Amino acid sequence: MNENREKNLRTFIVDVIRWNFRGSIAFQLFRLVLIGCMALGIYAYSHQAKYGLAVTGMNDIVSWGFYISNFTFLVGVAAAAVMLIMPAYVFHDPNFHRVVIIGEGVAVGALVMCLSFIMVDLGGPLQAWHLIPVIGIFNFPSSILAWDVLVLNGYLLLNSLVPAYILYCHYKGRKADERKYRPFVFLSIFWAFSIHMVTAFLYQGLPARPFWNNPLLGPRFLASAFAAGPALIALILAVVHTATPYKIDRSVFNKLRLIIVISAIINLIMLFSEIFKEFYFPTHHSISAMYLFFGMDGHNSLVPWIWTSVCVNLAATLVLAFNPGKNNPKVLLPACGFLFVAIWMEKGIGLIVPGLIPSPLGEVVDYLPTWVELSVTLGIFALGITVVTWLVRTALIIEDRYGK
Amino acid sequence: MCDQKKTDNKEEQQKDLAEAMQEKSSRRSFLKGLSIGAAAVSATLVTGCVPSADAATNEELRLRWQEYFKKNYRLMTQEEKDQTVSRLERLATLREGLEVQIGSEPPVKKVLYGYAFNITRCEGFMECVAACIKENNLDRKTNTQYIRIFEMEPGKLDPSEGDGKFFHEVPVENKFYMGTQCFHCENAPCTKACPTKATWREPDGIVVVDYDWCIGCRYCQAACPYFGRRFNWGKPEVPKEEVNVKQHYLGNRLRPKGKMEKCTFCIQRTRKGRLPACVEACPTGSRVFGNLLDPDSEIRYVLKHKKVFRMKEELGTEPKFWYFID
Predict the structure, then answer these.
(1) Which of A93, A289, B122, B248 could form a disulfide with B268 if both were Cys (CB 3.0 to 4.6 A apart)?
(2) Which residues of B touch A206 (CB under 8 A)?
(3) Domain B113-181+270-325 identical in fold to domain B189-263
(4) Domains in chain B: boundaries
(5) pLDDT (tens digit, 9 = 90+) per residue, A111-120?
(6) Which residue of chain A comes nearest to B314, CA vs CA?
């Protein structure tokens, strides 16, 4: 029995690799572009490894930059898979059941990117083993960063093992035993909220940074994640729907639209509440917000950035809410794309960088990422997209065969 | 002189780099860059840091290998501390040609260090800053400074409203001066934040960093409300003849790149009963340092008889650094 199973596992892996090397010319080209981007990222990172983080735009004042900004945003994208998992497994929505595997693939891709961003941000990546319990020292429960390491890796495990088990069962042509994976699905729902709350607490728990030290940060992280994540998933589903024989029911898009609109509105209300608090009666603690929205001492590199984000966010939310094209995907999908980018702008750079400006001693500097940071980031995005395409492709082929 | 040469070299290197980058579009040089990158990564994995162009000797590789797998300083026995110290001293000889003495003196019993800064007396000469840079082997390339001096308008007591970049003759009429550095908080947000316990508060009150255990995540830097921490963004550079060879494992030994560092109250001096370099250098006597547990110390006198205050008291960090007025 055991031997038989192992043999199947081997063919499973071989088949997955085989499927992922086939594809149309256009798909191969797409892959080539991704590999090119990753190569550029590796080249830029080797440069960073040699000369240190001095080749980035960061300094002692803005000590976290583009890497940590992207990390923070992508944790939200990973957490958003729960918006497919919940309807599929808890409410037993059959249409969502068909797409939940894609959501989980996106979550795994996002988590791979998150962990890569953390690794490239470390000054001593070779010392990263100091974080591993038993062989290193894990400052748990005191350090929120230790919590974050725990929840991110746990979520990665949950989100890869449950779909892997289901797919493997389907690959072998039998039904997955729901009693076996159901507890883990519920755990992963709880876990999805925890990864984003813990990541928010990373910032929220620092009294040194009044811009972050704000009880609304965690809930706002969730709201923005549940808008941006499903927006991305809707776009990916649209691609799958048009480019593959795997058809996705229209009702999935309609329900996703509802989720996105509600989350985006809650996010905007909370943003408004924060802006009100900072500017109705500005105190010492509002200086970072002042820098972000209006600039300070001639430093205003983030002002156009944040206003673009807020305006695009508002416009996209209104379009999604009022649905002017009457469910026309040519209107709704670009709106999803714009919303995704607007939240990326606001929750990435727009949250991390001003939190560090001005320094606790009042110094204001501007931050601009260098070519190294941009190239490494591009490489990591390419890696994430590669992971997602591999997982989704595998899942779709297996599900398609199993369905027949 | 040597300093000048070094910077020239550096500039040349950077120029080469810029040229290499411009050529990036050519496929061959791109691939070459890639293979160099791959080689660097694999070499890095083997030796524990990016090797220089000079051929590393077997001894050096062995020492680096042993250094890579050593424990956190706090978990080492005295024997292990002695071993790593002798390895580090030998490595300094092999790599930099320096004869350094790295100490591992433990905290002195019944000692808790405290610091007081007289804002009436300080006239902004910055002798303390210069002495600190020299004593602690701070990076000359990026001009790292543990101490900041702010020129303050009357009526203000928060350095964030002062001028930290003044460059003119001092003292200026109707201005006063405030120094900041690591305040060695009793309830330090930085040590709480560190995910690997690479930074902690010693029993004598000094907050230290184990440079070799630090992973360079910079969470402590974000957590510090006093801007007390500095990061080695690149490899710190100190001209060979200016290196202070009297060092401490937790203090002024030469830091690797990608690690956090900070003021240690000159642990290499104070644990031997000497004063920190900044206190010794101050020409106006504005800086007071001593043992808070000794009722006859100068610091206790200041705390008892002067009007003292601490920065950002509302955060509850309990700094061991007081400002006072004559």
Answers:
(1) B248
(2) 189, 193, 222-223
(3) yes
(4) 42-104, 113-181+270-325, 189-263
(5) 999 999 999 9
(6) A207
